[in-house]
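PROTEIN DESIGN WORKSHEET
SECTION A - STRUCTURE
LENGTH: 660
C-ALPHA CELLS:
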C-alpha cells in the first residue's frame, strides 16, 4: 500500500498551524510565569508589609513593658522604700503593678544585683541577677528592653507555673531540620530593666519585668486581628502569625490537622538555614505545618544582637494559585478561538499560491530527468515568477557546474598529494621531538643515579638506627645521618623541578575551585587544627592555566603561612580582579611573625629559607615563582616583621601568544 503525500496546501496549513501552536505554547508558558510571578510578587509585597505590622505590634508590646518598668522605677516612693529596705511596702505595691500591667515577672534587686523582692514567687529571694544580660546593663544606670532566652532554673525562681508554660515537647514536623533535642524547657521573654537611683544619682537597685511568650497568644492574635481580620478561604483562615523560640513554635495561630494551635511544631529546614543560620529575612513560599504559605520571616535578636527566635507572618498560597489558574484558563480559551479563525482564513488564502505552483510541477519533472535545456514560461512578476526565472538560470548553471566539477576532481587529487607530503614532514619533526625527549630522560636519569646511593644510605642508616639503643653513643649520629640524607633527597628532587620545570598543561581553570582543592588536601593535617581559615572569594572569570601547577603554588604558600604562625592564627584567602580587570589576584595572608625587610629580596632564591637549619629545602618558593612566570604572572609580598605577611599571586586573564 502506498500513501499519498500531503499536498502543498496541507503542508502550508500544518506549518502555519505548528508555528501558531508553538508560539501559543511559548506565549502561554511565559504568560503563565508572568502572571504567576506578578500575583506572587504582589502577595510577597503584601506579606512583607504584614510583617512590618507584626513588628509594630511586637515592639509596641516590648515598649509597654519598658514603660511600666521605667515609670515604676522612677517613682519617689519606690526609691525611698528601697533605701529604707521596706520589703513589705515594695512587695505589696509591685505586686499590684504586675497584676494591673499583666506582667508575668516583676522583680527588684539591690545595687549588686541580688534579688530582695520577687512579686510572683516572694519566697525565693537572695539569688544573684548581676550576670543577666539586661540587668547587668541597668546596674550601670539606664533602661533597657529586649527579647531574652530565660533558662528553666531562672523560670523556676520566678514561678513554677512559668517553667511549666515554657516546657514544650517537639512535635514531628514535615520538612523541619533534624534536632537531637526532643523538648524545650527554657522560655522566650520580652524583658525590660530600669535602674533605681538615689538623690545623688547613684544606682541603689534594679527593677526588671517581662512577659513570657511561650503559650502567650496575645501578640500573634493581635497581629491576625489587625492584618487579616479573620478572613478565610474555603473554610481555612488565610493569614497566620507565629513567634518562634529558635525554630520552635511557642506562640502561634497556625492550626494543625486537629484544628489546635501548632505549638511544638518547627520551622522548615530552608527557613531555618536562611533566618537562624545566616541571619537574613525569608520572603518566599514555605511549608508551614501542613500546607504551603507565602511567608515572611525575620530573626528576633536579643540585646547582644544574637538570634534567639523568629517572627513570622504568612498567607495561604492556594488562593493566589487558584487565581493564576483561572486567568490562564481564560487565556487558553481565547488562544484556541484565535487558532480556529486563523485556520479558516489560511485555507482560502493558500489558493493564490497553490494554482501557479501546480503548473510548475510538470516543468520541474522534465528537468529532474536530465533535460537541462528545458525552460519554464514566466507569466507573473511576483515570487512565483521569480521562481520560474530561477529554474531557467539553474539549468544553464548546471551545465557550467558539471564542467567545473570535473576540474575540481583533478584539483582535489593534486591537493591530496600535497597534503601527503606535509604529513611526511610532520613525521620527521615528530621523530626529532622524540630525540629531544630522550635527552630530557637522560637528565632525569642523572638525578636518579644520585638518588640511588642516597637511598641506600638512607635505608642502611635507618636499619642501624632501628637496631641501636637510644642510650647508645652512636644513636644520635645515626639519627642525624637519616635526617640529613632525607633532606638531601628532597633537595635533589626540588633542584630537578627548578632546573627543568614541567611545561604547563593549559586548560580553562577555576581559581576558586583550585584553592578549595589545595585546602582540602591540607586542612586535615595536624598543624591546621588551631588555624582559623577565612575565605573571601569573589566571582572571577576562569583563566587558562595548569590547574595542578597552580595547586602546587597555593600549597607551598599556604604551608609557609601556617609554619610562620606556628600552627595557631588566622589564615585569610581572598580572590579578586585587578584594578584594570586584566588579571586575577589571589592574596594569602597570615598573622605570623612576618618577613624581615632584608629577607624580602631573597625570598625566591633557590635554597634560601628563614626556617631553622634542616627544616625545608628552600626550593618551594623558587619553584612557585618559576611556575607563575611560565603562566606570565608574578608574585608580590607585603609584610612587616611581627605583623604577618601577604603573598599576592597575579595571573593574567589573557595570555600573550609567543612564537617559537
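SECTION B - SEQUENCE
RESIDUE ASSIGNMENT:
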Amino acid at each position: 500500500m502506498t500513501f499519498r503525500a500531503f499536498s502543498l496546501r496541507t503542508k502550508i496549513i500544518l506549518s502555519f498551524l505548528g508555528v501558531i501552536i508553538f508560539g501559543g505554547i511559548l506565549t502561554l508558558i511565559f504568560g503563565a510565569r508572568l502572571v504567576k510571578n506578578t500575583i506572587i510578587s504582589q502577595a510577597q509585597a503584601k506579606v512583607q508589609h504584614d510583617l512590618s505590622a507584626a513588628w509594630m505590634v511586637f515592639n509596641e508590646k516590648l515598649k509597654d513593658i519598658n514603660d511600666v518598668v521605667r515609670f515604676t522605677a522612677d517613682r519617689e516612693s519606690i526609691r525611698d522604700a528601697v533605701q529604707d529596705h521596706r520589703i513589705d511596702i515594695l512587695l505589696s505595691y509591685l505586686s499590684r503593678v504586675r497584676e494591673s500591667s499583666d506582667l508575668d515577672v516583676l522583680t527588684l534587686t539591690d545595687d549588686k544585683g541580688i534579688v530582695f523582692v520577687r512579686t510572683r514567687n516572694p519566697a525565693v529571694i537572695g539569688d544573684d541577677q548581676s550576670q543577666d544580660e539586661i540587668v547587668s546593663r541597668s546596674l550601670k544606670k539606664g533602661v533597657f528592653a529586649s527579647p531574652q532566652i530565660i533558662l528553666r532554673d531562672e523560670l523556676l525562681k520566678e514561678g513554677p507555673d512559668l517553667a511549666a508554660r515554657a516546657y514544650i515537647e517537639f512535635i514531628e514536623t514535615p520538612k523541619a531540620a533534624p534536632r537531637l533535642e526532643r523538648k524545650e524547657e527554657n522560655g522566650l521573654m520580652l524583658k525590660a530593666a530600669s535602674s533605681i537611683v538615689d538623690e545623688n544619682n547613684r544606682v541603689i537597685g534594679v527593677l526588671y519585668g517581662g512577659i513570657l511568650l511561650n503559650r502567650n497568644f496575645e501578640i500573634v492574635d493581635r497581629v491576625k486581628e489587625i492584618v487579616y481580620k479573620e478572613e478565610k478561604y474555603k473554610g481555612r483562615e488565610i493569614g497566620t502569625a507565629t513567634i518562634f523560640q529558635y525554630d520552635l513554635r511557642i506562640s502561634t495561630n497556625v492550626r494543625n490537622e486537629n484544628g489546635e494551635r501548632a505549638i511544638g511544631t518547627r520551622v522548615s529546614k530552608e527557613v531555618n538555614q536562611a533566618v537562624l543560620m545566616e541571619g537574613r529575612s525569608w520572603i518566599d513560599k514555605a511549608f508551614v505545618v501542613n500546607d504551603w504559605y507565602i511567608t515572611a520571616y525575620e530573626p528576633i535578636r536579643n540585646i547582644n544582637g544574637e538570634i534567639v527566635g523568629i517572627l513570622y507572618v504568612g498567607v495561604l498560597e492556594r488562593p493566589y494559585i487558584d487565581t493564576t489558574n483561572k486567568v490562564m484558563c481564560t487565556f487558553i480559551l481565547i488562544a484556541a478561538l484565535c487558532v480556529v479563525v486563523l485556520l479558516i482564513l489560511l485555507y482560502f488564502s493558500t489558493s493564490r499560491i497553490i494554482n501557479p505552483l501546480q503548473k510548475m510541477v510538470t516543468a520541474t519533472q522534465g528537468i529532474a530527468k536530465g533535460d537541462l535545456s528545458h525552460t519554464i514560461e514566466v507569466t507573473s512578476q511576483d515570487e512565483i515568477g521569480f521562481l520560474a526565472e530561477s529554474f531557467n538560470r539553474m539549468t544553464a548553471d548546471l551545465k557550467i557546474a558539471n564542467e567545473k566539477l570535473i576540474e575540481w576532481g583533478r584539483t582535489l587529487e593534486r591537493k591530496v598529494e600535497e597534503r601527503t607530503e606535509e604529513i611526511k614532514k610532520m613525521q620527521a619533526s615528530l621523530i626529532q621531538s622524540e630525540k629531544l625527549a630522550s635527552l630530557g630522560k637522560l637528565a632525569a636519569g642523572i638525578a636518579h643515579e644520585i638518588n640511588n646511593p642516597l637511598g641506600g644510605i638512607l635505608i642502611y642508616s635507618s636499619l642501624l638506627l632501628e637496631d641501636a639503643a637510644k642510650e647508645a653513643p652512636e644513636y644520635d649520629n645515626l639519627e642525624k645521618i637519616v635526617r640529613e640524607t632525607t633532606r638531601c633527597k628532597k633537595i635533589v628532587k626540588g633542584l630537578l623541578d627548578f632546573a627543568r620545570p614541567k611545561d604547563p598543561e593549559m586548560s580553562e581553570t577555576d581559581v576558586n575551585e583550585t584553592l578549595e582543592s589545595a585546602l582540602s588536601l591540607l586542612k586535615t593535617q595536624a598543624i591546621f587544627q588551631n588555624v582559623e581559615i577565612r575565605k573571601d572569594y569573589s566571582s572571577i572569570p576562569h583563566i587558562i592555566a595548569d590547574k595542578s601547577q597552580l595547586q602546587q603554588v597555593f600549597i607551598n604558600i599556604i604551608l609557609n603561612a601556617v609554619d610562620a604562625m606556628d600552627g595557631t592564627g588566622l589564615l585569610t584567602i581572598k580572590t579578586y580582579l585587578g584594578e584594570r580587570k586584566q588579571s586575577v589576584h589571589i592574596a594569602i595572608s597570615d598573622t605570623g611573625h612576618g618577613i624581615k625587610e632584608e629577607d624580602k629580596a631573597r625570598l625566591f632564591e633557590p635554597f634560601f629559607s628563614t626556617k631553622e637549619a634542616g627544616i625545608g629545602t628552600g626550593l618551594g618558593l623558587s619553584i612557585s615563582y618559576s611556575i607563575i612566570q611560565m603562566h606570565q604572572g608574578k608574585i608580590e609580598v607585603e609584610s612587616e616583621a611581627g605583623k604577618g605577611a601577604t603573598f599576592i599571586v597575579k595571573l593574567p586573564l589573557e595570555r600573550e601568544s609567543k612564537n617559537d
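SECTION C - NOTES
The first helix runs from residue 8 to 74.
Residues 549 and 627 are 7 Å apart (CA to CA).
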